[in-house]
């Protein structure tokens, strides 16, 4: 079984890499023409859809409320798998990511650094600079994807880590709605403790936005708790015995 998953994983990596090479030149448009930043979301969406189609992973994108295409949002998903980044590309809203630097990956690191907002969480100066860039990006009209856990913390069964303040501080300061996002099955498809793909349908759920109006920075823990509870409540509904590895 592991051998077949290894072959499937290798195929998935090859498809991902080939699609990156195909989209490399189009993605240079928003790199060099900053006002075309929305194209980042458009190309990421095509990339994500093609990737899942070509590796044979059926996917469902569910919106609990129709989002206003002309409004900015901060999307906050749970983060249990490396597959989550590609999954967030399925979002119908054009976004950029705020996440850790990927400079160690040739070409991809260059593209990610120039299209998205990166952070080295081990350095206080980098975290501060990222917060400033995040606020600036919101002032420029961009919608953002921020993983509030700050990385993949869970090792086996998905247990969300304590949320960091960044996304919620930015949302309150700039009065941008937060969209909680539940990704319930990626930890099964690509487990955090082993880089081996497993076939099963993928799902991503975009919940109703949390309106930050009326909140101040003194309420940041209340907002974090509200968003976390929405994601976790949905997640628990999907954690049935049948959905665990080896039982489906």
UniProtKB/TrEMBL annotation:
Phospholipid/glycerol acyltransferase domain residues: 73-186
CDD domains listed in its UniProt record: LPLAT_AGPAT-like
Transmembrane segments: 7-33
InterPro entries: Plipid/glycerol_acylTrfase
Annotated Pfam families: Acyltransferase (PF01553)
Pathway membership, UniProt: Lipid metabolism
Keyword Membrane: yes
GO molecular function, one term: 1-acylglycerol-3-phosphate O-acyltransferase activity
Keyword Chloroplast among record annotations: no
Annotated coiled-coil segments of the chain: none
Keywords associated with the record: Acyltransferase, Lipid biosynthesis, Lipid metabolism, Membrane, Transferase, Transmembrane, Transmembrane helix
SUPFAM superfamilies: Glycerol-3-phosphate (1)-acyltransferase
A GO BP annotation: phosphatidic acid biosynthetic process
PANTHER family: 1-ACYL-SN-GLYCEROL-3-PHOSPHATE ACYLTRANSFERASE (PTHR10434), 1-ACYL-SN-GLYCEROL-3-PHOSPHATE ACYLTRANSFERASE-RELATED (PTHR10434:SF64)
Protein's name according to its UniProt entry: 1-acyl-sn-glycerol-3-phosphate acyltransferase
């Amino acid at each position: 079984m592991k051998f077949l998953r290894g072959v499937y994983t290798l195929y998935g990596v090859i498809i991902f890499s080939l699609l990156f090479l195909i989209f490399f030149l189009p993605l240079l448009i928003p790199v060099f023409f900053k006002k075309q930043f929305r194209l980042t979301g458009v190309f990421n969406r095509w990339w994500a859809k093609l990737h899942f189609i070509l590796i044979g992973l059926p996917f469902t994108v569910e919106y609990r409320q129709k989002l206003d295409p002309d409004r900015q949002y901060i999307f906050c998903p749970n983060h249990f798998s490396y597959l989550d980044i590609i999954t967030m590309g399925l979002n119908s809203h054009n976004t950029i990511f705020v996440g850790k630097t990927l400079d160690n990956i040739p070409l991809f690191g260059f593209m990610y650094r120039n299209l998205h907002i990166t952070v080295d969480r081990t350095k206080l100066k980098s975290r501060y600079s990222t917060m400033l860039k995040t606020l600036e990006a919101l002032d420029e009209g961009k919608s953002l994807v921020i993983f509030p856990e700050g990385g993949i913390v869970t090792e086996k069964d998905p247990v969300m880590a304590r949320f960091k303040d960044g996304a919620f501080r930015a949302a309150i300061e700039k009065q941008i709605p937060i969209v909680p996002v539940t990704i319930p099955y990626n930890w099964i498809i690509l487990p955090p403790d082993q880089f081996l793909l497993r076939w099963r349908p993928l799902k991503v759920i975009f919940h109703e936005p949390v309106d930050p109006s009326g909140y101040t920075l003194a309420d940041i823990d209340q907002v974090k708790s509200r968003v976390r509870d929405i994601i976790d409540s949905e997640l628990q509904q999907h954690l049935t015995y049948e959905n665990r590895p080896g039982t489906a």
